[in-house]
Predict the structure.
Amino acid sequence: MTLEGVDFILGKSLNCRNGVEKMKEAQIEKNIEKMTIREVIKEDLPQIKNLFLEAHKYASGFDEEIVVNERTTQEIEKQTDKIFKESNGKLFVAEEKDKIVGFVYATFSPGILKSGWISEIFVAETFRQKGIGSQLIEKGIDWLKQKGAKRVELTAYKINHKALSFYKKHQFKKQPAKFIRLGKEIKLPYPITLII
């Protein structure tokens, strides 16, 4: 499967909301009150590793090159252990009743562009549509702003319509993106850019 890339840039326009959307938001706000968004701690690692595996399985539905096997589990072990050593990255979790139900991993590159990256964002399937993803992405963006980020990037698959809708809801705008490696164009998941 070949995927084309698209950038998203955050716009500052306001959305018009109808009564149904306002009712949904009121219900989401009730659910959010039960949710805690906080920085990850070492004790969360077993749950985080399981969520990373669930996220990987979810992504495999959009990309036939993603395979879930024993090696995947080993790579997730390395990736999650490395998170605590990353000085320019921060992992935040969504917790409900001692259960980690989602996470966002943000990294900052302090170079000339002062770029931030939402490397991972995921909410367990049974906890979606409750505003958790919105809280997580806002937490990641806020942290990146505090670090001095002027842009924030992340990836999504062109065929992942729910994710694209989610980013649009958060005022991201699509822009075409191309990647060149060794003189050959590569089609990848969307890089999505937010100008802060």
